[in-house]
Amino acid sequence: MSDDDHRTVTEIAREVRTAMITSRSSDGKLMSRPMTTQQVDFDGTAWFFVSRKADLVAEVARDSRVNIGYAGSGSWLSLSGTASVVDDENRKKDLWNEFVEAWFPGGPEDQDVVLLKVDADSAEFWNTPGGKPRALFAMAKARLTGTEPDPGDHGTVSLEDH
Question: Looking at residue 75, what is its pLDDT?
Answer without folding.
Answer: 87
